[in-house]
Amino acid sequence: MRFTDTLPTPPAEALAHSEQLATRIRTAITANGGRIPFREFMQMALYEPGLGYYVAGSRKIGKEGDFITAPEISPLFSHCLANQCAQVLMELGGGDILELGAGSGVMAADILQRLEMLNCLPQRYRILDLSPELRDRQRQTLQARVPHLLERVEWLDRLPETPMRGVIVGNEVLDAMPVELFSLVGGEKVIRQVAMQGDGFGLVEVGGEYTSEFNPALPGWMRSMAEVLEAGVLLLIDYGYEHDDYYHPDRSQGTLICHYQHRVHNQPLLYPGLQDITASVDFTAVAEAGVDAGLELGGYTTQAAFLASSGLEDLFVQALQDNPANQYKLAQQVRTLSLPSEMGERFKVIALSKGFSAELVGFRFADQRHRL
Ligand SMILES: C[S@@+](CC[C@H](N)C(=O)[O-])C[C@H]1O[C@@H](n2cnc3c(N)ncnc32)[C@H](O)[C@@H]1O
């Protein structure tokens, strides 16, 4: 992934699509007296029905998309998650899995395959995504990979009304939630607003030298997770930091970044609908919101430590035995998932539980709850 100031100009059709969304954003700005909070801009850019980045047709995740995620890098990632799910399902005597934001469906297929091998399939594997367009892609993946398990898979339009027992899992879901942008001006937080500027959009100037962001929806979202979970574990994987690191004085421009065709840049107001906008996750805020909602903090660690604790080494050895010709490829996948300079430390795993007291296997080597 390259950090860049210059971006390839999108094709005419994509620009026309973006212009349609820009018109809607302009209408919202006018209706709101000439400015809207950045959070609302981000909400529209990513999720405006039919037009937003995550809800319009283009392919986002994977080699032909804008960015690549851990389940797309290697099935070993999802197999480790499956090992953790198996422990929870066994302790509970069975249950369901609910995956939030399931992307291409590859993680669902890999988790189901591994759980089948462990003889520990969930009763149902449910998927909830804000992107209805991804359902077709997920169904195709599952149809191709685990057709005999498709009857266990269920797509939801909203969170289940009846509380569930089992595991709720989300990879890179929190970072896709709209954030409020703020600047510190004279020690006070000033929420940043977006206004029209020339043909495009600009942030309303407020002065101040420190800018960052927070996810205002987190407490409400956690309350709904706590309501949905009768017993079991909520497992979230994402890039981010603990509070003190997140708001470190040196991180004076916050963590907001954009992805466009495997390029990373920091111009979120450009090409609405065509690029991903994302912020790192404040895991202390996640833990606090969870505990306030009645969940218990079950574990927190780096992705590397979580994968190691969940059996990555054995899975790697097994995969090598199954397919020795893949040695280089598999070793490369493990490096990408685990090395500190790659995803190993930038990505964290947090577990919040309810009615579940067993120590979670994924945190047995290096539980870092004390850092939150
Ligand atoms: C960065 S993608 C990650 C996709 C996939 N988990 C992966 O790892 O490849 C984020 C996904 O989360 C979904 N999403 C965002 N907020 C969500 C929410 N509140 N509930 C469910 N899905 C959500 C988006 O629609 C998008 O599909």
Question: Gist?
Answer:
The chain has twelve helices and 18 strands. It is globular and about 60 Å long. It is α/β, with parallel strands linked by helices and 372 residues long.
Supply database-style keywords.
372 residues, alpha/beta, Rossmann fold, 8-stranded mixed sheet, 4-stranded mixed sheet, 35% helix, binds S-adenosylmethionine
Ordered list of secondary-structure elements with their pairings:
Elements: E1 2-3, H1 12-31, E2 36-37, H2 38-47, H3 70-73, H4 75-92, E3 96-100, H5 106-117, E4 125-128, H6 134-145, E5 153-156, E6 164-171, E7 180-185, E8 188-191, E9 193-197, E10 200-203, E11 210-214, H7 218-228, E12 229-241, H8 243-246, E13 257-260, E14 263-265, E15 276-278, E16 281-282, H9 283-292, E17 296-302, H10 303-309, H11 312-322, H12 327-338, E18 347-354
Parallel strand pairs: 1-14, 3-4, 3-6, 4-5, 6-12, 12-16
Antiparallel strand pairs: 2-9, 7-8, 7-11, 9-10, 12-18, 13-14, 13-15, 17-18
The site of S-adenosylmethionine (SAM) has 19 residues, from helix 3.
What class, by secondary structure content?
A: alpha/beta
Average per-residue pLDDT, rounded, comes to 94
Which residues sit in consecutive blocks of at least 5 with pLDDT less than 50?
A: none
For the secondary structure, the number of strands is 18
CATH class annotation:
Alpha Beta
> Which ions and ligands are bound to the chains?
S-adenosylmethionine
Strand content: 15-25%
Number of helices: 12
Give the end-to-end Cα distance, rounded to a whole number of Å.
29 Å
Order of helices and strands: EHEHHHEHEHEEEEEEEHEHEEEEHEHHHE
Instruction: Provide the helix percentage.
Output: 25-40%
Shape descriptor reads: globular
What is the CATH architecture annotation? 3-Layer(aba) Sandwich
Number of domains: 1
| CATH topology (fold) name | Rossmann fold
The major pleated sheet works out as:
8 strands, mixed
**Rg computed from alpha carbons, rounded to a whole number of angstroms:** 21 Å
